[in-house]
Amino acid sequence: MAIIRCLNTFAVLTCVLLIIVYEDNTICVAFSPSKERQHSSNISYRIIKAQKYSHNVSTVPRDQCGIAVERRIDCARDRSLSRAECESRGCCYLPLPQSGLRGPPWCFYTVFYPGYKMGPMLPTERGHRAILTRSAPSYLPRDIHTLQLDVMAETQDRLHLTLKDPTSPRYEVPFVKSQSKGHKSMENPLYDVDFQPEPFGFSVRRKSNGRVLLNTTIGPLLFADQYLQLSTSLASSTVSGLGEHYTPITLDLDWSSVSLWNRDMAPHRSANLYGSHPFFLVQEGDGQAHGVFLLNSNAMEVFMQPAPALTWVTIGGILDFFIFLGPSPQSVIQQYQEVIGYPMMPPYWSLGFHLCRWGYTSTNITRTVVQLMRQAKIPLDVQWNDLDYADQRRVFTFDPQRFGDLPQMVEDFHQLGMKYVLILDPGISSASPPGSYKPFDDGLKKGVFINNSTGQILIGKVWPGPTAFPDFTNPTTQDWWMDWIKDFYNKVPVDGLWIDMNEPSNFVQGSVDGCPDSELEKPPYTPGVIGGQLNSGTLCVSAQQYLSNHYNLHNLYGLTEAIATHRALLKVKKTRPFVLSRSSFPGLGRFSAHWTGDVRSDWEQLRFSIPAVLLFGLYGIPLVGADVCGFGGDTNEELCVRWTQLGAFYPFMRNHNDRPNAPQEPYVFSQRAQDAMRMVINLRYSLLPFLYTLFHHAHTSASTVARPLFLQFPTDPDCRSIDRQFLWGSSLLISPVLEQGAVEVMAYLPPGTWYSLHNGQTYYSKGQYIVFPASLDTIIVHVRERSIIPQQAPALTTAISRKNPFTLTVGLSVGNLAKGELFWDDGESLDTFERGDYSYLLFFAEESYVVSKPIKLNGSLDGLVLGEVRVFGVQTPPTAVWANGQKVPDFSYRLDTKVLTVAGLELPMTAKITIQWS
Ligand SMILES: *[C@@H]1O[C@H](CO)[C@@H](O)[C@H](O)[C@H]1NC(C)=O
Ligand SMILES: *[C@@H]1O[C@H](CO)[C@@H](O)[C@H](O)[C@H]1NC(C)=O
Ligand SMILES: *[C@@H]1O[C@H](CO)[C@@H](O)[C@H](O)[C@H]1NC(C)=O
Ligand SMILES: *[C@@H]1O[C@H](CO)[C@@H](O)[C@H](O)[C@H]1NC(C)=O
Ligand SMILES: *[C@@H]1O[C@H](CO)[C@@H](O)[C@H](O)[C@H]1NC(C)=O
Ligand SMILES: *[C@@H]1O[C@H](CO)[C@@H](O)[C@H](O)[C@H]1NC(C)=O
Ligand SMILES: *[C@@H]1O[C@H](CO)[C@@H](O)[C@H](O)[C@H]1NC(C)=O
């Protein structure tokens, strides 16, 4: 293929079309946009032509089959094909010696495989448009013969490309796109795009270095009613994303695939789990990164191969691609969240410790749990109940005997400064005698439920028995949901809602009546999902919802329920809603927290909870954690201690257990284990001011909270795939023990100076692994040089700890510099940042002083004091210390660790504070 470089920039402001036809038939088309669109004037589109486009379906020329084995794109994904069948599809058939379950295909496309032909590109309101036509039918039923391509240079770092049917509208994903703030500069786009008209394909290059990020000409574009496929080369083999799966932080490209179809499925390998996130980030190898988001909610399978390359196959909707140019990995995540929305600001209490189990079968038992936690002096902010509370497992009710005093119990918890959350499943019991269960009767009357394909309410089976499923895409349903949440809240003043089972999960396949034998239920191609069928463990996909059928909307069920629940809580409580959702889709983080579902109590699941949590951070759902000590199966003391240590650094920390298992509340273990758990939960509580400030940044600028090392140290090749350690923001490095019996950790410290958070001991790293002793009561945490961490003395609840004296922990750089900050508000009012109702402090250290400087004050810090300053890395022993100019008698300095501690202070946080030493 000849590539001709065309003009790169066009200064002309009126609409001009330049066509240059070169001798070898390469066409170069460039548009300069009209005045309104002058922003996109610096993107160059090049149109290039395949050298020898010739294809004869019955005889594939052998020379076109000479594709390197690792670059073969499978032409027989739907079933295995004989040579004759393969060749009749127009594909190459070249068997390989060994065949396993995974490996290169024998039947594969050529790069000239007939696809679409692109017509001329014309400018539009938002970018450029071309019509694509398919010359010959593909082997798929119901090809879409004509496609409309729109190319929109939306910002200098975001390219948006859609392919849809211009003649008859197809389903497009609702709810997700949110215009978040973020810079919108169009000057000097970071990308160029090349188009190959026939067979249609495009490539995207990073302008600065010419790197090809995507090249879709390596395989055909297929676009049939129920089968859409596009392949692309990848710029490197370091790819993260495409959740939710049980994987390390980077994906395996060795002929593997992942399917995206929300499913109630305990985390295990090769299974589609609760959520779908068709977004991935590629580390390009030199510290730069880009991301690709395919906004499509249909069942999808993404195939990966070592070329490196990847093929999207989705079975409905349109192709709606966003490409984010970074160039830093953190900016890729921010650019992604500009499309799907920045995460909500969580209430402060939700960062405390949560305790739950299925099997707290009465208020008495639940009250006892709280009592025992308090006796053990272990912080607990939020007590939970699973479905035990509900009368005959029906939501919006509570058992009159076992939970008869539920309202009083919640009030009592509130008196203790605690919060209370309970489970709310979407399935509405449909089998109660008429008049005995109003949420159903009312829903029936209002038509809020999902119908089956013949227009009657679809009945499935969940915990209460036969159930109907609310259709949250219907505005009437959202109002009905709000009414019933309000009705319940007026009796039981819950502080948040836990929306479980919302994939949605169904204990019968499809419905109690089964599912019709249709092309929706049994599409020409079904992605590799657990159970083999789309309706396994969920609803018939032919079911009808307000906006479309369940086939299209399935993956949005949890998101739409989260939106409705968030809205209802907002209405009834008028404070920041707390919602915890199991099922997820892009955009969920605006409304909800997430936990990683039914993890097993074992060491492997402990270890894989780290990449799971980190990946959800990339998906814009920073408030996430795994069930501490594991949910399924019996835990044991050592595992539970180690899990509590790691869990203390999940952004969301909840211990939750399944009904039949050995108990795992901290107080059931030995004194030694309890001490270790208390210590680390106290450590978490002491760090909550810092964690809260990180959430503020996530909410206002989409920065990550629990952060993979590669995001912070993108140019350090050793960080590329580390997922046994992680950071909080840019400053705290957490290196937990993840193996049974281990009493040390081999932890990687990126180049620079690091201090033990516990005692300030200094480590100078060249970028190396260091072994740290980690007895059962220890989790290894390091403070990065140049950072100042605001802390606060812990307490049994955040209601109390929020009033305690602050501590500043300062990690000096070699040049004695450090900085940090604190975002503070009342912890629960709505939109405090947006309304300017918050306080903001900056901290900095230079030479021999530390300063706390209020930038903005709002009364939220009134009465709060700075009690202590710890300075790590003070090289010269100080002889005197001054606080705001007054000599401090009470300071200590350790020669061995070089830590200066100034304690016993009582300095108002609302004033400028200077601590100086010499
Ligand atoms: C395709 O190949 C077949 C068999 O060689 C030949 O008969 C036919 O004419 C060819 N068609 C075209 C369009 O080249
Ligand atoms: C195009 O790029 C040039 C430099 O490459 C820059 O000076 C100019 O402002 C850009 N124009 C627009 C409209 O972005
Ligand atoms: C894209 O891939 C095709 C097929 O492998 C190759 O011929 C072409 O050079 C690639 N384009 C770019 C820009 O790398
Ligand atoms: C709960 O405890 C109270 C007071 O101890 C007792 O009167 C009541 O019977 C208990 N309820 C249940 C259901 O065990
Ligand atoms: C489902 O059926 C009910 C009752 O026939 C009707 O009110 C409702 O509009 C239907 N919903 C949809 C999405 O078709
Ligand atoms: C829809 O539900 C009704 C009532 O339960 C049932 O009779 C009918 O067979 C169902 N239709 C399908 C296609 O399952
Ligand atoms: C807090 O900020 C809001 C908005 O700027 C302002 O109206 C209010 O008076 C402030 N409250 C205090 C106590 O400073």
TrEMBL record:
A single Gene Ontology MF term assigned here is: carbohydrate binding
Q: Where in the cell is it found?
A: Lysosome membrane
**Cleaved signal peptide residues:** 1-30
Q: Where is the P-type domain?
A: 63-111
- Its primary localisation, in coarse terms, equals membrane
Q: Keyword Transmembrane, does the record have it? A: no
Instruction: Give the matching Gene3D superfamilies.
Output: Glycosidases (3.20.20.80), glycosyl hydrolase (family 31) (2.60.40.1760), Golgi alpha-mannosidase II (2.60.40.1180), Spasmolytic Protein, domain 1 (4.10.110.10)
A single Gene Ontology biological process assigned to it is:
neuromuscular synaptic transmission
| InterPro entries, sorted | Gal_mutarotase_sf_dom, GH, Glyco_hydro_31_AS, Glyco_hydro_31_C, Glyco_hydro_31_CS, Glyco_hydro_31_N_dom, Glyco_hydro_31_TIM, Glyco_hydro_b
The answer to whether the entry has keyword Secreted is no
Q: Which GO terms describe its cellular component?
A: lysosomal membrane; synapse
Q: Which UniProt keywords apply?
A: Disulfide bond, Glycoprotein, Glycosidase, Hydrolase, Lysosome, Membrane, Signal
Q: What family does this chain come from, according to its entry?
A: Belongs to the glycosyl hydrolase 31 family.
State its role: Essential for the degradation of glycogen in lysosomes. Has highest activity on alpha-1,4-linked glycosidic linkages, but can also hydrolyze alpha-1,6-linked glucans.
What is the protein name given in its UniProt record? Lysosomal alpha-glucosidase
Q: Which organism is it from?
A: Danio rerio
